[in-house]
């Protein structure tokens, strides 16, 4: 059994409230998040510090990679995209924490692009249906076959950080964020659960409790206004 939290986007106070609710009911289970820790909300530094302090496991989102590349590879498409994607709030949150900035971006780069767990498959945006025709027919028997595709395409529009296309049924439940929904949405045809419920736009930060590809519980926390005002 695992808990998976949706896109946080600098909403630190909301994250703490949701995390405490998860721990009250499920004190020992691992907690993951689908990434986009930074940007848009007011407290990106605090979010990453909390994620590290509480040992929350995460897959980086496209916003996290834009943050990393802005400082490490400023001519890259990730870096150039960041200035149009809410970076101001992230930079402001690190103004008094410059010593932590490079530690945090190195942690982002070291994080895995996905977790293939017994209970589910976690990534930021998911495995696109576009890849179906280049996979062997028996790929569901050994999902490590996806490694090469994931790492060779993560910069692309249909890659695991960016895709908004229909997702591929990989034989277990995919838990993804990236595409905001008003509430958690399950795509039965892809066996995919979308859990970004727009914390950064004042809706909710959501989490799901998953066991063996089944949703045990949904927890949603209304955005704390201190995170976005």
Q: Would you give an account of this structure?
A:
- 46% of the residues are buried.
- Strand 4 and strand 5 form a beta hairpin.
- The chain is built from seven helices and ten strands.
- The protein starts with a strand and ends in a 7-residue tail after the last strand.
- The strands form two sheets. It has a five-stranded mixed beta sheet with strand order 3-2-1-9-10, with helices on one face. Strands 4-5-6-8-7 form a five-stranded mixed beta sheet, with no helix packed on it.
- Helix 3 packs across helix 6.
- It has a single domain, classed as Metallo-dependent phosphatases (Purple Acid Phosphatase, chain A, domain 2, 4-Layer Sandwich).
- It is of the alpha/beta class and 229 residues long.
Keywords for this entry:
single chain, 229 residues, alpha/beta, Purple Acid Phosphatase, chain A, domain 2, 5-stranded mixed beta sheet, 30% helix
Distance between the termini: 35 Å
Q: Which regions are unreliable across 5 or more consecutive residues at pLDDT < 50?
A: none
The arrangement of helices and strands along the chain is: EHEHEHHHHEEHEEEEE
CATH T-level topology: Purple Acid Phosphatase, chain A, domain 2
